[in-house]
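Hi, here's the filled form for the chain we discussed.

Project: internal
Contact: R.S.
Residues: 144
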Amino acid sequence: MAKPNICYHNVRINLDNEQHCRVHRVLSKLNKKVHKSVNQFIVDAVDFYINSMNDENLVEDAVEQKKDAGYITRDDLDGIRAELKNEVKNEIIMLLGAALGAGTVRVVEGATGRNSMDITAGEATDNTKETDDPTMMELVDDWG
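And the returned structure, exactly as it came back:
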């Protein structure tokens, strides 16, 4: 009568294969004083191998598990690069537009937690008062 909590896996050993011969020699002469049984030795050996591989490519759904684990692929990196490039490009355009429009750019904390640009053209005239600093005037004259 078969027990419901036991499953069987068969192993075929080819004695013409050197690796198989080594396994057969160890299994047939296994030291029973050290190891409980041949079955437990095989289970321990396979378990050690599985743990050392970290379950990589051992099961069929390993690829799906990797995606769920949060690994980043090259396609993901390319998408991130494209997004960053577009964001930087838009910020540079905003800064250049503000500079060319004689406006000032003020960095304001936005609702999303990121820095956003608040461009005001009216404040440019208020903040550009000339000072009568002689050192500054000399530097301006030297620059051309």
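Let me know if anything looks off before we file it.
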